[in-house]
Amino acid sequence: MQFQPQKNLGKSIQDLLEQDPSFRTVAYFSMEIGIKTSIPTYAGGLGILAGDILKSAADMGVPMVGITLLYRRGYFEQEFNNEQWQTEKPVLWHPEQELTPLHNKVSIKIQNRDVNIQTWLYEIAGSSGYSIPIYFLDTDIESNHPEDRQLSWYLYGGETLYRLCQEIVLGVGGLRMLRDLGYNNIETFHLNEGHAGFLSLELMREMGYYDPAKVREHVVFTTHTPVAAGHDFFKYELIEKVMSSDALTTLKRMIPSEGVSMTELGLRYSRFVNGVSKKHAEISRKLFNAPTIQSVTNGIHPTTWVSPGMRKLLSRHIPGWENDPGRLVQALTLPSDELWSVHQASKMRLLAYILEETGVSLKSDILTIGFARRAATYKRADLIFSNLKKLIEIGAGKIQLIFSGKAHPKDDGGKALIQRIMNTSNKIKDSILMVYLPNHTMELGRLITQGVDIWLNTPLRPREASGTSGMKCALNGVMNFSVLDGWWIEGWIEDVTGWAIGPTPSDTDLHAYDESKDAIDLYEKLEKKIIPAYYSDREHWIRMMKNAIALNGSYFHTHRVIKEYCEKAYGISFRGI
Q1: pTM of the predicted model, to two decimals?
Q2: Do residues 318 and 411 share a domain?
Q3: Do residues 525 and 481 lie in contact, with contact meaning Cβ atoms separated by under 8 Å?
Q4: Are the C-beta atoms of residues 481 and 498 closer than 8 Å to each other?
């Protein structure tokens, strides 16, 4: 099929929708999309960000469509054995209870076999009445070879061959499915990370001739990580076993190397490339020697992550904030007593959950510090335990700790990190109470980010491309206590929106700096600033809560992210928004 680009760039969204209410001009491809806990097709931040972006697009009437894989067995359900070592089991869920199966089917060639793909539909209903369709690709069909049926079973599962086949399903199969569904007017294919990079190969096949410039006209690419392990690389000797000879010939022409870096594929064949914070864009420009990489700092979907009580409080005092989160700058005038009461209600809801699930009784009047994210070693979840004697001296009877997060099934380092934290809880339990909540989900993430008093974040610089959990906290009046990396460089004002850990970022400390400085600074800030403010200066504490909402919550949201993508990457404009 000849690829026929449409010429609508520069027109407003309203103009496009008036011409055709079903018009979609942007297709958003993501290996994972997190919509809600009962659809377990996400592992962490990347997928939840994708879901938040599509939710804001629906709220704002942006003509988008989402593409991902189904993952019938999810990412995994986390459990712990008697040695506190993480174990995994498949997530049992029923797609037919959440999604609508469609009759459309397409076929792709993998390992000289025809692999049939079907799709399921979920529609995100926006606050304005507009909806965004998300299509979940599924290879678990009787007509497929048993191995091919499993390609849509596990998110980030299997060996390199499994990942390669999945990414062909997403990039090539995803585009073919869109065409079969009738989406022939899409102008922009947005690759959320490099997993869908083979889409550019399929665009080339559709055109029927080799024209990299024409492909670049229709692709934009968001890179999410400066960590090498986050960039998939497939050697041609492996690709040769999977792709057809025609596709392989074209791909080798596109990437004349010993293999394909999916990030390089995205960089080479996109008209617009961005990192997910200002600092990440700077790092990426150096890492990839690509001076044109821009930045669109991540955000969160406000009404997904705000607590019920906070939503009512904000709506009462800042009408219209849900549609225009920029109005949250007015949070500076929120009544202090109401704000504190709403936060305490969220905190008590979290503590009740902990008591019910673990039997551990935490106290609502104790400073509660939260750390919940993917358990990777570079995130240093155990930094706060660097000096247990010092921690107990500072925090005995004054702080309590809540941890959560999954390690990748093959990441023994991440599993060992969790084990160390859980074992540490037994060592300090007489002085400082701590819990590790298993099986971190979106719903649990909501409870934690809404209910803690402080959000701790301690990654090795510069590996935190952005981070979004701290943004969810800020919207709920929870201050960040974080290493200056990712989004926090942009959101941090010391003693105003939160606190920094360690030295300020500079060109000299991008890849190596004295890690011990972070632990020392963490203890000093905790002892001299945070604990005294919480217990002795409630007025200042609540003022900082207001600042977090007004200065961070009003900016770090996906309504702003969508506007930036429309203006910088999609070439469509808003009128009256």
Answers
A1: 0.94
A2: yes
A3: yes
A4: yes
Domain co-membership, 261 together with 373: no
E-strand stretches of 254-346 = 259-261, 272-275, 294-295
**CA 474 to CA 469: how far, in whole Å?**
9
Rounded CA-CA distance 216/202 in Å is 13
What's the DSSP call for residue 383?
A: G
Q: Which residues contact 194 (CB under 8 A, 6 or more apart)?
A: 221, 223, 231, 232, 261, 262, 263, 265, 266
Structure tokens at 318: 């800042």
Task: Judge if 227 and 249 occupy the same domain.
Answer: yes
Nearest alpha-carbon partner for 360 in 352, 368, 348 = 352
Model confidence over 455-492: pLDDT tens digits?
Answer: 999 998 888 999 999 999 999 999 999 999 999 999 99
Identify each DSSP E strand in 1-63 by its residue range: 26-30
Question: In the numeric block, which tokens belong to residue 271?
Answer: 């008209």
230 plus 364 within the same structural domain: no
In terms of residue numbers, what domain contains 190? 13-299+562-570
Residue 343 lies in a domain: yes
Regarding whether 374 and 255 lie in a shared domain, the answer is: no
pLDDT tens per residue across span 286-321? 989 999 999 999 999 999 999 999 999 999 999 999
Number of domains in the chain: 2
Q: How far apart, in whole angstroms, are the C-alpha atoms of residue 202 and residue 199?
A: 5
Q: Which helix (H) or strand (E) holds 50?
A: helix 45-60
Q: Tell me if 5 is assigned to some domain.
A: no
**Mean pLDDT for the stretch of residues 63-81:** 95
Specify whether 313 is located in the same domain as 264. Answer: no
